[in-house]
Recover the amino acids of this structure.
């Protein structure tokens, strides 16, 4: 294949890639319009950030200190199940209403069989304290 | 004639590669843009159907659609007649393979009380498989 012909082939292929990517972008479905009000984003509460750090670092002692209510710990366990090995905990966002902040997280890890799993949970924070899980 | 066919073949091959690449990498660059992941249309549809108490629409975006489960949804919708949604806020989402998590905060009036609840939806292949 001579050089001008190879260049033309590459150019046409690249143009095709751009057309394909553009088509995908234009045809991918956008979420339906939200007919309700949307609350402004809030900052991550320190208490929920500490809980997320304890989960990320696999620190059961710190977690038991930060969430003293056993019911909440059981709910947190349900929210993490079936993840047994946490690889990452990422804060997604938070919203605040009348002093109650809902702080959302996503946990990545592996289950007992080694499968990659993703789970989401929300910590309810009031007066600087975690008072609810999902 | 053959030259035109060759040109079209190359462009179409490139377009297919571009379409697939864009679809596969969409969650990555969406997460980078918004910082907390992109919202899936199916999760939004589920939340709207849930707040509008529309069991048929809920079945359309839920993984399980057997008749008993749909009956439970109809029953739940009838029992939730007093619910008046005030706000629906997308807190963020993330994707891992076929799994997607989208989290919302919902404020609603239930009777005389106003409640502020989180909803964490887990989707697999575009269908809601878990609501917490």
């Amino acid at each position: 294949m001579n050089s001008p012909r190879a260049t033309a082939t590459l150019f046409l292929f690249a143009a095709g890639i751009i057309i394909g990517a553009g088509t995908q972008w234009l045809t991918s479905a956008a979420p339906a319009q939200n007919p309700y009000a949307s609350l402004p984003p809030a900052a991550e509460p320190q208490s929920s950030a500490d809980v997320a750090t304890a989960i990320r670092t696999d620190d059961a002692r710190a977690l038991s200190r930060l969430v003293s209510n056993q019911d909440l710990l059981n709910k947190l366990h349900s929210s993490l199940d079936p993840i047994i090995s946490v690889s990452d905990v990422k804060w997604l966002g938070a919203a605040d209403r009348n002093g109650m902040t809902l702080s959302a997280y996503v946990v990545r890890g592996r289950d007992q069989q080694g499968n990659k799993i993703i789970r989401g949970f929300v910590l309810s924070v009031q007066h600087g304290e975690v008072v609810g899980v999902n | 004639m053959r030259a035109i066919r060759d040109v079209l073949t190359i462009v179409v091959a490139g377009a297919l590669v571009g379409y697939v690449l864009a679809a596969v990498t969409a969650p990555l660059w969406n997460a980078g843009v918004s910082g907390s992941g992109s919202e899936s249309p199916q999760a939004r549809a589920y939340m709207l159907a849930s707040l509008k108490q529309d069991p048929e629409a809920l079945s359309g975006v839920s993984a399980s659609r057997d008749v008993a489960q749909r009956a439970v949804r109809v029953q739940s919708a009838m029992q939730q007649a007093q619910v008046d949604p005030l706000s629906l806020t997308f807190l963020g989402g993330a994707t891992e393979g076929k799994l997607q998590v989208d989290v919302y905060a919902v404020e609603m009036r239930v009777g005389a009380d106003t409640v502020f609840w989180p909803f964490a939806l887990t989707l697999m292949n575009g269908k809601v498989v878990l609501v917490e």
